[in-house]
Each structure stands twice: as structure tokens, then as C-alpha cells.
Amino acid sequence: MGKPKQEGPLQYDLEVPAHTLPTEDVLQKLAVGQDNGLSDNDVKSRKDMYGSNQLDEGPGVQPFRILVHQVANALTLVLIMAMVASFAIKSWIEGGVITFVILLNIVVGFFQEFSAEKTLGSIRALGSPSARVIRNGVSQVVPTGELVPGDIVELITGNSVPADLRLIECINLETDEALLTGESLPVAKTAHSTFDKGVGAGDQLNIAFSSSTVTKGRAKGVIIATGMNTEIGRIAAALKKQGSKIRPVKRKEDGSAGIHRHAQAWALTGGDAIGHFLGISTGTPLQKKLSKLAILLFFIACICALIVEAANNFSSKNEVVIYGVATGLSMIPASLIVVLTITMAVGTKRMSKRNVIVRKLDSLEALGAVTNICSDKTGTLTQGRMVAKAAWVAGRGTFSVGVTREPFDPTVGEVTFRASAPCDTATNESLLDASKLQSGGVARETAATERYMNIASMANVASVTLVDDHWNVRGDPTEIAIQVFASRFGWNRHGLVGGPDDNDSGEWQCLAEYPFDSDTKRMSVLYGRHGPSREKWASRWVFTKGALERVLPLCINIQDEHGHDRPIAEDDKKRINDSVDVLANQGLRVLCLASYEWTEPEIAEYGEIKRTDIEKNLTFCGLIGLYDPPRPESADAVAACARASINVHMLTGDHPGTATAIAKQVGIIPSHLERLAADVSRSMVMTAMQFDKLSDDEVDKLPILPRVIARCTPQTKVRMIEALHRRGCFAAMTGDGVNDSPSLVRADVGIAMGQSGSDVAKDASDIILTDDNFASILNAVEEGRRLFDNIKRFILHVLAENIAQATTLLVGLAFKDAAGNSVFPLAPVQILWVIMATSGMPDMGLGMEVAVHNIMDRPPHDLKTGVFNKELIVDMVVYGIWMSILCISSFVLIVWGFGDGNLGSNCNNSYSAECDLVFRARATTFVCLTWFALFLAWEMVNFRRSFFRQKPKGENYRWYHIFYQWWDDSRGNPFLFWAVIAGFVTIFPTLYIPIINHAVFKHKGITWEWGVVVVESILFFAGCETWKWSKRIFFRRREAKSGANDLESPEQGTALGGSETNEKFGD
């Protein structure tokens, strides 16, 4: 929630509305320059004055709601019922202890969940929208909440306007203000007009309003209002109220409704309230599933209590009731939901440190199940720091740029020239003179070169400027590289237009702009060239650049050596395509440049001209090849994906040759495709046109889905996701543009780019990569798998413990004293102690366990099965039954093995001499169960590997290491280690402090019985280790058998085989 704005006039408040003032006056009153923006000190002082740029979205983390949630859940209700039953039969000690446990559980749970909610809130803040601003003369990206009045903001298509802006300059800007005005059509904006004070928000065309979306063009503006002081903030303040939680009544067309419809609405409303109360209708799918499990355990607890009563002929004696209470309590996994919440909070925090912001908690559960990653190339697999390496000027020749370590400095790096196309390598190269090059002399030598440089410089919105001997760049990496290349020839756009893009004082002026998007794959601008009188245009030119497939078909001419047009011939097209192939095979991204002189009559509003009327009858002027080197970590990340049975697909807008070259470099496809089966090789690399021509049936018949799709469109991405889903795959998709939103929503995990991504794409995504790095996707998958394993760990630990307690007590019904009453082997307070001491903190420690060494060397888990797979269910039963067998045997051994079998009388209520044997047996059983539960937490660190050797054997491993390696391994998770130690230590006061042992825990301090405990503990470890050993044998044999079947399968063929099974399980 933003800081409230101070009352009274502020230093930078405007006396009159900004839409009535010229741009210069607004900048002057806000004390800011449009080129340098605010300084850091200005930002700090204004933020202290105006607060954060955030709408009042409510109270945020609500302590009262969290407190209610601690009380209003099925598990706490079981404790409350047990408390009521204890007090009803005047069992004050048990009732008091249960009351204390309830209060302790609520307090601890409250602070844990409160901390988790604050952590999640801070993580969500990291994923909030960002804006590009100019501060200290440098363009930088900052969270929208950090913006202040006076900040200079840059907008491009797809951005959400972060605050109310007075536009300074704009090119073909249109914004969607439906949220503000209800107007369904985009509104064209202007920067240099002013309007009357009384006009409404919809007619303030020089203002871009907060929360509107840029649908076309680009602009620069100065912030005039932030947070609740914006136009949308005022509306939010006026409409601020809670939405109704009451289901509407279904009515007839005349508005009437029968009584049954009112009853239906109230029943549904009541069902919603109960579902929310019990947690089965809120939270992530796993949280809902565990809430349903809690309700199931609630009913099982009631059934267990009923069994106890039935075994004692429904007696109302205090002993029987207390036994029933104890059995019901044994089924309570008190810490389950809280530990899950904390584990997820810790997981999101860990991910944020690894450059992954989680927007939707559902994705935490989904990441570990990802089988296929569909990734963009530019800036994700590659560095996004492009350099123009080659430029073919039609009619002139090819310019090449040498190696440079300063991609943004146009004065660094040699430029050579040869008078031929890239496909003709027979001619020699000559080094160009640097001074002549940078003065513009080379560009002016021929009309063909000048025409080419005009396109490179002006069909381009990037900015490359020299400020204090440092080159500052702003814009898209592709356009920056082209603008730097033009600047090498002294042809920077700022020099041609005379300053800002909408400036009218330069030689050229932008009349209309049609931005690049992933559908058209080209950008066009219409520029006017001033005549001597500056009253009318000397000439007007259309400049276009884009993908060859989208520009060359629009070309009817090609320029000659004099820069004149001549009809383009088939030989010209062949030479163009051959040159593109040569450049693309070098890993260069190739763009086509074209132009023509626009000779239509002059009009008042050039922005109203349709794109189709501009982009036609073009003249081909040349090609430019850009090199974007792969990130150093991309190849290792792709290889790691292969080991993790995750297929990587590159979906890029680049030329097939460029995409293939980069895909080979990073390992997405083999270096020698010709060695694969013919049908597989043909399917490995496809263009979007080839892929989209196939029907769904034809796509499904492909031996393998394409690893590379070039010239990809947004619709192709959607079709790819659908094809993967039909093959049973679980897909993640990256995206950064507005048009990528459908594929991000359709994917199982939508991944937006934090640096280059549009706000629309971020809103549609599940996670955001703050560094736009493919390797960070692998980090997210690894964290997702680790989190999934940890959730399985503590769920298995909790439920196995519940089974052990309940089974022990139910079998203990057979232990009856002289009066015929069952004597419980575990007292109610003992059970509560085991639940609190051995469940809560150790389970939280299991939630913080580090990833196992081979977590990325195994296939993804099946999200349909979820955490409750067959292995977990069987483990839960085996561990639970084994613990209960040992607990019962310890009780039997003390009473009948070493004792005389006397169960005394009334030993469930109080201590007496004849109950001494029962109290000792009960203490032994209690210690055994406590130790078993603590040891089980350590055993859960790895589901199959031995506790005594949790890591693989190293080169220096010796057989005797088994005696102490477990000590080093167990300390690898300090939280779990000290939680287990605390459980060991705290058991002694319960045994030996007078009154507490007899009156509260219903047991007695033990002596020689410790020998039984030690032996039982050894047997517990032996049983657990034997079970894990048998599991290892079973899974090895199953994997060997599965591998043999795969080798015998005719579909296997190669490492990049040809089956839907390969697609699903990682080829």
C-alpha cells in the first residue's frame, strides 16, 4: 500500500492541469529535463513526499484473517472436540494439556504463516510490473512502485502505462483506455496539443493514463501523478468496496424467482463459506488436496474413537472416553498445512535468488513435471547483445565489421568492404579509413549506400548517443545493433531528425510509424524530407526492414549502383536468397532493408494511413546480418535438460539457417542431422509455414515434434503447445511480446521475460525470469523438483507417524485390566507430545532439505498422480506398521516379558503401586515412538538411499566410512539436525520430573528399560534399511527390464528416436 500523500500544496504540484500546459511548462514546473531525467537524490526526496506509486489494494497481510485460519480448520476442530470431551468427564489435566497444545499450535502457526505471507508478499512485489525511465541521463528499468512525479518514462507497444503521464513526444501512439473510459477502441494520442481545463479524461489526448495499455506506437512522457492520485486511483477510491460473496439468485426473464431458487442460492453460498472455512476451495491444488485429506483424517479420527467405544461396549467411563480421545488425537497431522505454506514460501524465496519470480503458486507444483521447454532464441538462449557483422548494399557491395569488445561503441572495430554480394566470395576485401567512415564520407560516396543507410538509421527507434564520453543506448537489441552500424558511417538518426523523434527542426521528420510485431515481422516508417523553405516536403520516403520472407515479396524493384530503381528479376531474387543462406549459415540473423519514394498527395493526418497502403511496391536495398552469440551457459543448460529427460524446442522468428546454426551450437539438435533417420531429420527443423500447413493429424504422425521452428508466429506457438499436450507432454513456454499471451496462457507453465518482456506477457505468465536467461528456466525446474520432493518427504513422515500411533492404540484395545477396561499403551498427552515435538519442527526441516545429487538426472514426475503415488502410499503403510509393531512389542515385552502381566486398575487415570508396571511400559513405548519418529525424519531425507550413505560413493570411499558418513550427511540440513536433537533432549524432562511424569504424561521414569529402547531403535533402523534395500533392487530390475524393452522397440532407432513415448519421456 502506497504511502499517503501529504495534505496541502506540494513543491512539485501543478497549479493548473497538465493537459492545459505546453510540454516545456510542465517540465519546468516539475523541475526535470527530458534528456537526463531525475537524479537519485530527486527520486528519494519525491518518494518521501509522494509515497509509492501503488493503488490501495487492501490491507495486504491480515493478521486477524491468519489467526482465524489457525482456528478454523479441521485439525484444530479435532483438538477442540478432544478438549471439550476431556473437560466434560472432568479430566482436567488432559483437558488442560490439550488446551495448551491448541493455544501453542495457534500461536506458532500464526507467526509461521504470518512470516510466510510476508515472504510471499515481498516475492509478489518483485514480480510487479516495471517501467523504463530515464534517470541520471541513463535509461533503466525500475519497478513501477518506485516511480515518482517528474520521472521521464519511455513507452512502447505492449507496455502498461505505469502512472499518469504528460506526453513529451509520441510516434503513432494509441492506448487502450477501456478500463478508464469504457471506450472499446484505442485512442490516438498527441504530445504537442493542449486542451481546455474542463475537458474529460477521454478527451485529454496529451495524457497517457495509468493502467491503460499501449496498443500501437511509442512515446516518452513525464509523470504528473502517481498511486491513488492518478485518474484510475480516484476511480478506485470511489468504488472501493468488497465484492459480494453471496451467490446470485437465478431469475426468470421477468425478474421473478421461485422459493427453490432462493434456497439454491443460499445453499451454494453456504457451501462456498464452508469450503473456504475448511480450505478446500482456496489455495493451490496441493493445498486443497491436503485440506481434503485433513477432513478425511477428521472422519477417520471419529471412526477410531467410535471403534474404541464399541470395543468397550460404549461405556461412559472416564477411562474409555479418554482412550477414545487419545485414539482420535493420534490421527491429527497438526503441522501439515502450515508446513506446506512455509515450504512454498521458502521455495519462492529461493527461486527469487536464482532469478525466477513466481507469480502463481500453482506453478511451484507444476515446474517439476515439465517434460518440454519451448524457448525463444534471442536474449534467452543467446546474449541479446547483437553486433551487425555484415551488410550488403545492393548495387554497391558488402561491408563487414571486425571483432569488437564494445558492441555499443561505433568508433571501435574495423570495417572492410568488398564489391560483391555475400554469396560471391571471389572479390578481395579492403579496409576502410576510420575518419572518412565516421564523417559520413563513405555513406555519401554513392546514392545506393546513402539510401541504404537512411533505412538502417530511420526504420529504427533505438537511440545511440554519446554522453560524457560514454555511449548510451536505448531500445531493442536488434535495433541498437543496426543503429550502431549506421553510426559507424556517421548516419545516426538523432543527427538526421535533429533531436527527439517527433522533432521538426531536422532534415528529416517522422510522419507515420508501423512497429514490428510477431505477426507482420517487419517495421515501416514514413519520413518527410524538408525542402529549403520548410513549408512543404521536398520528398517523402517509406523505409522498411524485416524478415526476408515478409519484405521481399513486397519488393517490385531493386536499387542499382546509382540508387535508382530497376525491376527485380529472378536472378536478383536467387542472388538475394543465396546471400541470406550464406549469412544465416554463419549464425547471423538476417534482415531485409527496402524503401521507396512516396508520391501520394499530402494529407493532414499521416497517422491515419493504413499499413497496407504504405507497405507495397518496395525497392530492395540490401541485407544486414546480426550476430547474437549464445550465452556461455546455454549449451550446458540444454545438456542438463537432456539428462533430466526434458526436450528443448527453439521457437524463433529468425531465418531457418540462423536458427539451425545456433541450435547446433547450444546442442538443441545434433551437429550431423544427416546421420539421423530421414523422417526424423526432416522433422527436426521446420519453418512456421511448413508446420502450420500440417493438419493436427499430420502433426501427430510426425516421428518427432520439431526441435526448431523458424519464422515462428504466435499462432504457431499455440499449435506447438496443443501438439505437445496431445502427446501427453507437460510444456513450458517462454514469451515476451503482447501476441505471446495466448501461448503463455495455454502452456502448463508460462514463462515471461523480466527485462525484455511486455507487461501484457508478464500478466499472462506463471513465472518471470529476471535475467531473461534460459539457464534460469533450468533453475526453476530444479527448484520445482526439490520442492515436490520435500513436500513428499514431510507428508510421508507425518502420515506414517499417524498410522503408527493409531495402529498402536487400536491394537492396544486388547490390553484390558481386571475391570475389563482397555489400558492404552500411549496416553493422550504422550500422543500430543509426539505430534508437537517430532512432527512440527522436523517436518519444517524436511521442507528445507537441499536437492538430492541426481535430481536433474531423472525423468519429470507425473503431476496427475501428484505426491500421493504408489511408492509414497506403500512407504507410508510399511513405515507406519513397522513402527506400531515395534511400539506394541515394547509394551508387551515390558508387561509380559519382563513383568508379571498385571495391568492394575484405573491405570488410565492415575498412578498407583499396582500401575507401576503399566506406567513403565507406557514410558518405554513413548520413548520408542518418539525416537522412531525422529529417526524416520532422517530416513526421509532420501526415499531409497541408505541413511548411512546418502550420497554416492566417491573415489576415496572406504567401507568404514559408513560408520561416520551419516553424521556429516545429517548435518547438511542444520534446521532438521537441531530439530531432531531438540526432540531427543526434551524427552528427558517428561520422564523424570515428578508430577509431570505421573500426573500429566501417565508414565514413570525408566532405568533398565533403556536397553529395550536401544534394541528397538536398532530394529527400527534395520527394518527401514531393509525396506529401502528391497526397493532399490525392485527399481533397478524394473528399470533394467524397461531399458531392455526400449532397446527392442522398433521405434527407438536413434537417440532422437521417433515415438510419442520418446517425446513424453525425454527421447
TrEMBL record:
<feature type="transmembrane region" description="Helical">
    <location>
        <begin position="293"/>
        <end position="314"/>
    </location>
</feature>
<dbReference type="GO" id="GO:0006813">
    <property type="term" value="P:potassium ion transport"/>
</dbReference>
<dbReference type="GO" id="GO:0005886">
    <property type="term" value="C:plasma membrane"/>
</dbReference>
<keyword id="KW-0915">Sodium</keyword>
<feature type="region of interest" description="Disordered">
    <location>
        <begin position="1041"/>
        <end position="1067"/>
    </location>
</feature>
<dbReference type="InterPro" id="IPR023299">
    <property type="entry name" value="ATPase_P-typ_cyto_dom_N"/>
</dbReference>
<dbReference type="InterPro" id="IPR023298">
    <property type="entry name" value="ATPase_P-typ_TM_dom_sf"/>
</dbReference>
<dbReference type="InterPro" id="IPR036412">
    <property type="entry name" value="HAD-like_sf"/>
</dbReference>
<dbReference type="GO" id="GO:0046872">
    <property type="term" value="F:metal ion binding"/>
</dbReference>
<feature type="transmembrane region" description="Helical">
    <location>
        <begin position="872"/>
        <end position="899"/>
    </location>
</feature>
<keyword id="KW-0460">Magnesium</keyword>
<keyword id="KW-0812">Transmembrane</keyword>
<dbReference type="InterPro" id="IPR044492">
    <property type="entry name" value="P_typ_ATPase_HD_dom"/>
</dbReference>
<comment type="similarity">
    <text>Belongs to the cation transport ATPase (P-type) (TC 3.A.3) family. Type IID subfamily.</text>
</comment>
<dbReference type="Pfam" id="PF13246">
    <property type="entry name" value="Cation_ATPase"/>
</dbReference>
<keyword id="KW-0633">Potassium transport</keyword>
<dbReference type="InterPro" id="IPR008250">
    <property type="entry name" value="ATPase_P-typ_transduc_dom_A_sf"/>
</dbReference>
<keyword id="KW-0067">ATP-binding</keyword>
<keyword id="KW-1278">Translocase</keyword>
<dbReference type="Pfam" id="PF00689">
    <property type="entry name" value="Cation_ATPase_C"/>
</dbReference>
<keyword id="KW-0813">Transport</keyword>
<feature type="transmembrane region" description="Helical">
    <location>
        <begin position="320"/>
        <end position="346"/>
    </location>
</feature>
<dbReference type="InterPro" id="IPR006414">
    <property type="entry name" value="P-type_ATPase_IID"/>
</dbReference>
<feature type="transmembrane region" description="Helical">
    <location>
        <begin position="95"/>
        <end position="114"/>
    </location>
</feature>
<dbReference type="InterPro" id="IPR059000">
    <property type="entry name" value="ATPase_P-type_domA"/>
</dbReference>
<feature type="transmembrane region" description="Helical">
    <location>
        <begin position="975"/>
        <end position="996"/>
    </location>
</feature>
<dbReference type="InterPro" id="IPR006068">
    <property type="entry name" value="ATPase_P-typ_cation-transptr_C"/>
</dbReference>
<dbReference type="Pfam" id="PF00122">
    <property type="entry name" value="E1-E2_ATPase"/>
</dbReference>
<feature type="transmembrane region" description="Helical">
    <location>
        <begin position="71"/>
        <end position="89"/>
    </location>
</feature>
<keyword id="KW-0739">Sodium transport</keyword>
<feature type="transmembrane region" description="Helical">
    <location>
        <begin position="1008"/>
        <end position="1027"/>
    </location>
</feature>
<dbReference type="InterPro" id="IPR023214">
    <property type="entry name" value="HAD_sf"/>
</dbReference>
<keyword id="KW-0630">Potassium</keyword>
<protein>
    <recommendedName>
        <fullName>P-type Na(+) transporter</fullName>
        <ecNumber>7.2.2.3</ecNumber>
    </recommendedName>
</protein>
<keyword id="KW-0406">Ion transport</keyword>
<keyword id="KW-0547">Nucleotide-binding</keyword>
<keyword id="KW-0472">Membrane</keyword>
<dbReference type="GO" id="GO:0016887">
    <property type="term" value="F:ATP hydrolysis activity"/>
</dbReference>
<keyword id="KW-1003">Cell membrane</keyword>
<feature type="domain" description="Cation-transporting P-type ATPase N-terminal">
    <location>
        <begin position="17"/>
        <end position="91"/>
    </location>
</feature>
<dbReference type="GO" id="GO:0008554">
    <property type="term" value="F:P-type sodium transporter activity"/>
</dbReference>
<keyword id="KW-0479">Metal-binding</keyword>
